[in-house]
Design a protein that fits this description.
Layout (H helix, E strand, L loop, with lengths): L51 E2 L4 E2 L5 H5 L4 E5 L2 H14 L2 E2 L18 E4 L2 E5 L4 H17 L6 E10 L7 E9 L5 E6 L2 E6 L4 H9 L9 E8 L19 H13 L2 E5 L2 H10 L3 E11 L10 H25 L5 E2 L9 H11 L4
Parallel strand pairs: 3-6, 3-7, 4-14, 7-13, 8-11, 11-12
Antiparallel strand pairs: 1-2, 5-6, 7-12, 8-13, 9-10
Length: about 350
């Protein structure tokens, strides 16, 4: 069964997913053309003179998006620009990508001052900011970018940090489900005054493939489990150290124990949005995070900076293993070239930059 038969995904009136959770993402004619390129679930886009991807400082007529991004297979997202620049440099070494002499990685979306985007051959490395609204905006525009660039069957990853639930700091968690703070496994958003609920589903086959790539020699554990997506860093995650706290430590521990008993292994702030929007677009997606602490033991991250820096590499290593293995099977492990800017219309190019810029 293809989960694309209704405007809100395969849900009943209560937003409950009726499909088998063990299914991988199934591709339907609503999300793919026959050649595998991305098809948008929005007929308005095809009628527009130009689609400006405002928060990326790109446009469908100002830039030659097929030339710039047509070979993209993997879209990797993480919270901060610095982390995703570091990932771009790391994946470049892992897949043997070579930049032309005298060039360096370029932030393609630098004129938006909102997100940072780096292209390394078939890999996009993009910062998504913090929280559901920020990653939601980015996903809308990146999914549209995949459409305009005619990318075939892209795979999305979120590479991040989180708080573990009964897991030690440094543990890598691959999300096999996503739930909100009420443990609902859907993402809801008000649309035209009505709450639209979309199932927050991740690709089960992709989860298994990632788990299989965990090396027994890795000096840390890699586990799978449900990820809770909070709308807030403090009260929404049951922390005791926010500006407000109207509950006791006993209340907090009771809540965390309830999460753990329901299979929730970690808490972050983007999972349901990421899972629901990629699933609604028919895009295979996975979330790989590293725990910075065990929330059962405290609220504040007190680990030394150099240790945190090493921990944050761990999800990148796992995702890089997947990408590298895929490219090796396709005979594409040595790649030359650079994701440089390709301008179709200089006038429109300048206008898009001006419209996307913000001034301090």
């Amino acid at each position: 069964m293809s989960c694309t038969k209704s405007g809100n995904g395969c849900t009943n009136g209560n937003g409950v997913d009726n499909n088998n959770e063990d299914d991988a993402v199934e591709i339907s004619t609503e999300t793919r053309y026959l050649d595998g390129t991305v098809r948008l679930r929005n007929p308005n886009i095809e009628l527009m003179d130009q689609d400006i991807l405002y928060h990326l400082a790109l446009g469908s007529e100002s830039h030659d998006l097929v030339e710039m991004f047509g070979d993209v297979k993997f879209v990797c997202m993480g919270g901060t620009p610095k982390r995703m620049f570091n990932f771009a440099e790391y994946i470049m070494k892992e897949i043997g990508h070579k930049l032309p002499t005298g060039t360096q990685l370029m932030d393609i979306s630098q004129y938006s001052y909102r997100y940072s985007m780096y292209k390394v051959g078939p890999v996009l490395s993009i910062s998504h900011g913090m929280g559901a609204p920020s990653i939601g905006i980015l996903l809308h525009e990146v999914i549209k970018l995949m459409y305009h660039a005619r990318c075939r069957d892209p795979v999305f990853f979120r590479i991040g940090t989180c708080g573990g639930i009964g897991l030690e700091g440094g543990t890598v968690i691959i999300s096999d489900n996503a739930a909100d703070g009420m443990m609902n496994k859907y993402y809801q958003v008000p649309v035209l005054g009505k709450l639209v609920k979309r199932p927050a589903k991740l690709d089960k086959k992709l989860v298994k493939e990632l788990k299989a790539l965990a090396n027994p020699d890795d000096p840390y554990d890699t586990v799978t489990g449900t990820t809770m997506c909070a709308d807030d860093f403090y009260e929404g995650q049951g922390r005791l150290d926010g500006a407000f706290c109207d509950y006791s430590e006993a209340d907090k521990m009771e809540y965390l124990e309830r999460l753990r008993s329901n299979g929730i292994r970690n808490i972050e702030m983007e999972a349901t949005t990421f899972a629901a929007l990629t699933h609604h677009a028919g895009i295979k997606a996975a979330i790989v995070c590293v725990a910075l602490l065990d929330r059962m033991k405290g609220d504040q991250v007190c680990t030394p900076k150099e240790v945190l820096t090493e921990w944050q590499l761990r999800p990148q290593i796992l995702v890089a293993r997947y990408i590298k293995r895929y490219l090796q099977t396709k005979g594409r492990i040595s790649l030359d070239g650079h994701g440089s800017m390709a301008v179709k219309s200089p006038r429109r190019f300048k206008l898009v930059q001006q419209e996307s810029q913000t001034f301090e």
